[in-house]
Amino acid sequence: MKNYISLKSFLLAAAASLGLATSAFAQTTVPATELAPVTRASGLLGQNYASLSYGFVDLDDTGIDASSYTIAFNQAVRDGLDSMLEYDYTRSDRIFGSRLTQHSLLLGARAYTNYNGIKPYAEVGVGWVWQKFGGTSDNSFAWGVGVGAEFELASAFTVTPFVRYTDITEGSDNGAFEFGAKANYWLNEKFSVMGGVSRDDDSNMTYRVGVNYRY
Predict the structure, then answer these.
(1) Which domain holds residue 143?
(2) Could you give the 3-state DSSP secondary structure of residue 4?
(3) pTM (predicted TM-score)
(4) What dihedral do alpha carbons 73, 199, 62, 208 form, nearest 10°?
(5) Percent of the chain clearing pLDDT 70 (strictly above)
């Protein structure tokens, strides 16, 4: 039962965001003999983007794995502040003939600063989680906080180590710390690829890959 509760807390950490983007386009004249430069984003903080990712969750010492499918949105509210919205669907391997399934919806904000390509940040989020296992189901209010720093290592390439704490209100001993890092590379002005790995304080591991679309 401890693994069941740990997975519930662990998969709540998230972060991600939604909003409606507005952009201003400036008209420039480019000589016919020149190509207009391609503008690549630098990192994910301060960007308006949608994200689709897959996570493989390895529950320590259980022989049980889970798959996590996440859709997330990030909206820059102003310089130094982003809003986030994330939906996640997770399904485990069979446990005594049944599968654990979970839906979570999280909304939050992330504040950051920029020091010559290094962007430390702090985030907070709240939401709701629905879970079903066998013939039983449960739902709960969820909340989380986190800190990290986005490092620009090369043009359009960033690495972000982070720490998060997440909790739910139902039950006891549900809080979980998550330690990890993610990398993002912008292929062009619209699309990027990302990957990451994290571990919680119960030694459960998550490996994630995905794509982002900047709008």
Answers:
(1) 2-19+48-214
(2) helix
(3) 0.78
(4) 40
(5) 80
pLDDT exceeding 90 applies to what percent of the chain? Answer: 67
Q: Taking a C-beta distance cutoff of 8 angstroms, is the pair 5, 171 a contact?
A: yes
Residue 70's CATH number: 2.40.128.100
CA distance 102 to 7: 10
Provide DSSP, 60-127: TTTS-EEEEEEEEEEEEEETTEEEEEEEEEEEEEEETTEEEEEEEEEEEEEEE--BTTEEEEEEEEEE
63, part of any domain: yes
Is residue 58 in a domain? yes
Tens-digit pLDDT profile for residues 53-105:
999 999 988 889 999 999 999 999 999 999 999 999 999 998 888 899 999 99
Q: How many domains are contained in the chain?
A: 1
Helix (H, G, I), strand (E, B) or coil at 43: coil
CA distances from 188 to 23, 156, 157, 184 (A): 18, 9, 11, 12
Q: Which residue in 127, 120, 125, 89 sits closest to 108, CA to CA?
A: 125
Residue 61 belongs to a domain: yes
Is 26 part of a structural domain of the chain?
Answer: no
Using CB atoms within 10 Å of the CB of residue 7, give its burial: 0 to 12 exposed, 13 to 18 middle, 19+ buried. buried
Q: Token pair for residue 153? A: 């290592």
Measured CA to CA, the distance from residue 200 to residue 179 in angstroms comes to 6
